[in-house]
Amino acid sequence: MTGEMLPYLFIGFFSVFVSSVSQTILKKASLTERRSFIREYLNLPVILAYGMFFGSTLLTMLAYKKLPLSMSPAFESSSYIFVTIFGVTIFKEKVGPRKLFALFLILLGIIIFTL
Known about the structure:
Layout: H1 6-30, H2 37-41, H3 44-63, H4 72-90, H5 97-114
Helix pairs in contact: 1-3, 1-4, 4-5
């Protein structure tokens, strides 16, 4: 990997982070009861989350201007780590030993894949 690619690598991982935040916002919004079907989709958190998804897509496209598409699995795999962290901190989800081991394997795979 060249020094020219490093900023695009950060953009790629930031894109996945933004996507993970938007997923968390959507999950949080889904826990709120709405009075109608339309209000399920036309409310500020949902609109914000879909806007973030769109921005994440644009950031991903920008990252792939200089990065090879073979980097895609590393980016996408890192989303599992972000979503798990948000699940534990925001939704108080439990993480057992099997899930921790799975996250370790994902992280190890990302490191090996990017070397």
